[in-house]
Write a structure and sequence with these properties.
Blueprint: E1 5-12, E2 19-26, E3 33-36, E4 47-55, E5 61-74, E6 79-87, E7 99-100, H1 102-107, E8 110-113, E9 118-121
Parallel strand pairs: 2-7, 3-6
Antiparallel strand pairs: 1-2, 1-5, 3-7, 4-5, 5-6, 8-9
């Protein structure tokens, strides 16, 4: 399966001057918007909602800080208001790999096109 990388803007709702524009990998196995702890200060003072245990793709358990409130916008899709999770990440070749999880995708009305390796707009919301 190919990798889908998408531009994302994340903004601190209480301090709109604190925002980041990033390229993030779409990961339908992740739940939240996952960011490296090293970027936490770039978003300013966010509420620490919870320290949660997270299971990685390699079945390793790590701790993550769920923080918010933030505005998240995947380029070309609607803005959402949610939380982000900061985790300790090791940069690969000097670059971190933030993740867009399934909660962010669903709230943004974005779906993964597995054939075209891209995000597409969900035309209708489920009511069933």
């Amino acid at each position: 399966m190919g990798r889908i990388i998408t531009p994302v803007k994340i903004k601190n709702l209480r301090d709109p001057d604190k925002s980041i524009h990033i390229d993030a990998m779409v990961d339908t196995g992740a739940s939240y918007m996952i960011l490296p702890s090293a970027w936490k200060e770039r978003l300013g003072d966010l509420d620490l909602i919870e320290i949660a245990e997270l299971e990685t793709a390699t079945q390793t358990t790590v701790k993550g800080e769920i923080c918010g409130p933030v505005q998240i916008q995947i380029e070309g899709f609607r803005r959402i208001y949610s939380e982000v999770v900061f985790v300790d990440m090791e940069p690969e070749n000097g670059n971190y790999e933030p993740l867009v999880g399934y909660i962010v995708l669903e709230l943004s009305h974005a779906a993964v096109d597995m054939v075209g390796h891209r995000l597409i707009r969900v035309k209708r919301m489920d009511l069933k």
